[in-house]
Amino acid sequence: MLKNAQSLELLTTSEMAEADRLTIAGGTPGSVLMKQAGAAVAREAIRLLPRHGRVRVVCGPGNNGGDGFVAARVLAEQEFTIELGLLGARDGLRGDAALAAKSWAGKILAVEELDLDSADLVIDALFGAGLARDLDGPAKALVLRLNEWTKRTKKPIFAVDVPSGIDCSSGQILGAAIAAARTVTFFRRKPGHLLLPGRIHCGGTVVADIGIGDHVLATISPKTFANCPAVWQRSFPVPRVDGHKYSRGHAVVLSGGPAHTGAARLAARGALRAGAGLVTVATPGAALCVHAAALTAIMTRVCDSAGGLTGILADRRKNTLVMGPGLGVGEKTRALVRAALDADGESGVLPRAVVLDADALTSFEDDAFGLAQMIRRRGRGVVLTPHDGEFARLFGHAGQNDQSQWLDVLQQVLLSHFDDLHSKSKLDRARAAAALSGAVVILKGPDTVVADPEGLATIAEDLPPWLATAGSGDVLAGIAGGLLAQSMPPFAAASAAVWLHGAAARHFGPGLVAEDIPENLPPVLRALFADGVLQGDSG
Hints:
alpha/beta
């Protein structure tokens, strides 16, 4: 699915180092890559500068600093006024960075000597993707000084590769971090450009071609991608001319009691707008009249117990179940989840898809291991949709029950499957939960991560702030359920649901409430078809 998503790969620090190594081994000297990188920095810096503007280039002791030396030379040749400061001693530079420093004919100042007050732009070439420890001492003091300057003067800092102090693989701050207005990176973006708080510190990120060929990706085999239609468009369900409502799947959404029915209706409407042919709200009898008065195209069915749910699921045409929004926390919900996950136990039957959200997750906060065992026993087709708080409640207490080794296992999974463990990032956590549970995990937030048990992951890069409203997550669970009902593969369905959810909110804009999200899916989908991103059935 992801082989042709060539511009979407996000490379960890070690994967980017391998891309450099393969390119150099293929005959391109590292010094040439550095010259290309420095020239790209200069080109992008000019976009932020007035004519003959004054630039301060702050270089570090490694290759990031070498890029800065090259950029300074190129800008000076184009009649910009340059002051260059070096953190550390010039004789401490090695390899390509030392060669780049020799190409700079101007003065090399100590960073403390730089005249920031007269600058129009500062280029941050201190520390790039290779930074692996917290900044302290003079480096941290310099970062804080530069941040004070940009805040006071409103003049920009332009970061090379990644703002100094940001972990490239996790987006986390290492002691202190530059607040850049723009960042230029090379060949491919890194997870830290999309994950918070890194994304905020990057400003806008642009990618420069420095001569690394796309062919190196076949060797690297990256597993992390920016979430956009190119990732999931080929598996997106498109109604056929000869299709009908039954061929588009039947999603069932479980409801809580009379005082907690709205969340289920939000999820149901999301599933319907996402394309499910039929949607039923399975409701306690006491809440039936509430739903019946509010629903039209969505059907209702009484479900007062786990046994009642088992009876509903005996109809195999009901192929997707969304449970959690407004369902209530406690043993009754746990019993419903067990019934849902056990309903497909008979051999030879393709498991129906199950989306577990909100209360369905929190109900297992003291038994995450048991939930994972049930999911793994059924095989596949389960999507978990926690936000950070629900994730912490579900997995944070897991070591306190009889399965006391749970957190140790979590750590071992990370160590054995994923690099850059020191970051303990949102990406790592989502992958670990997916690997342990056997489910696709949507770890929600402004930088929502979707991860599958094999380690594939997408990161959302442009979710609008309007989504931070009550009921928004219920709609997302419903959209995922609607796509799953149409037999979209779980990882693709989860990634598509996150993107569509954000696009619908962006289409509506300020003032958004959760009810608006499903109603803004049609124009988003219409645009995808009109632009040829999705291909309809011509009959």
